[in-house]
Write a structure and sequence with these properties.
The complex is a heterodimer of chains A (about 120) and B (about 110). Chain A has about 120 residues and is an all-beta fold. Chain A has a single domain (about 5-115), classed as Immunoglobulins (Immunoglobulin-like), CATH 2.60.40.10. Chain A has no helices and 10 strands. In chain B, about 0% of the residues lie in helices and about 55% in strands. Chain B has no helices and 11 strands. In chain B, strands 2, 4, 5, 6, 9, 10 and 11 form a 7-stranded mixed sheet that branches. In chain B, strands 1-3-8-7 form a 4-stranded antiparallel sheet, with no helix packed on it. The chains are: A mainly beta (about 120), B mainly beta (about 110). The interface between A and B is medium-sized, with 30 and 26 residues.
């Protein structure tokens, strides 16, 4: 499959462990954040989102934490499985001065799950 | 329900040529966004179309253009190709394109410019 990024930071975990992927965002005015998972040869897939009026949101095996004070977002994956191996991107959505809204993606983190 | 489809999946062109990529959104979705993904720059927003109108545009030169048809299918065109245009081009569709609508991505078109 295609290489998403040649020099991505990599997190390597053992199957069954919990994974924590971090993301620093740039704009304090961002009000909506999304985590995406991208497997080799595929487009990004939505995992979980969170609005800025929340600091935590839970899904199935995943939790997103938002710390607006330090502009930090994290994705926690419980009981990591080999199928979780992928590149993970955080994205922030902001309304710019022009009124334009668009997603700005982070550079991504490669998660490798060792069996 | 069928997902977002993109054609072709792979394309090889030479500098100076032009290329047209196609995206068929999920049935019922009216918003289509295009992104460029490269190892160096990551995922970058190109433009968004809604009801045949370009609603948002990223910071790309005018060589990059797009359009949307009445059935919500979208095409993007890159003219006068440069080596740096080699990338994975991703299309994403959503119901209305409002900020809190989930975007569904297609598998992408891998463009190589020689």
């Amino acid at each position: 499959g295609e290489s998403v990024g040649l020099h991505l930071p990599t997190l390597s975990v053992q199957e069954g462990d919990n994974s924590i992927i971090n993301c620093a965002y740039s704009n304090s005015a961002s009000d909506y954040f999304i985590w995406y998972k991208q497997e080799s040869g595929k487009g990004p897939q939505f995992i979980i989102d969170i609005r800025s009026n929340m600091d935590k949101r839970q899904g199935q095996r995943v939790t997103v934490l938002l710390n607006k004070t330090v502009k930090h977002l994290s994705l926690q994956i419980a009981a990591t499985q080999p199928g979780d191996s992928a590149v993970y991107f955080c994205a922030e959505n902001i309304e710019e001065d022009t009124g334009r809204r668009a997603l700005t993606f982070g550079s991504g983190t490669r998660l490798q799950v060792q069996p | 329900k069928a997902g977002v489809t993109q054609t072709p999946r792979y394309l090889i062109k030479t500098r100076g040529q032009q290329v047209t990529l196609s995206c068929s959104p999920i049935s019922g979705h009216r918003s289509v966004s295009w992104y460029q993904q490269t190892p160096g720059q990551g995922l970058q927003f190109l433009f968004e179309y809604f009801s045949e109108t370009q609603r948002n545009k990223g910071n790309f030169p005018g060589r990059f253009s797009g359009r949307q048809f009445s059935n919500s299918r979208s095409e993007m065109n890159v003219s006068t190709l440069e080596l740096g245009d080699s990338a994975l081009y991703l299309c994403a569709s959503s119901l209305t394109g409002t900020p809190y609508n989930e975007q569904f991505f297609g598998p992408g078109t891998r463009l190589t410019v020689l």
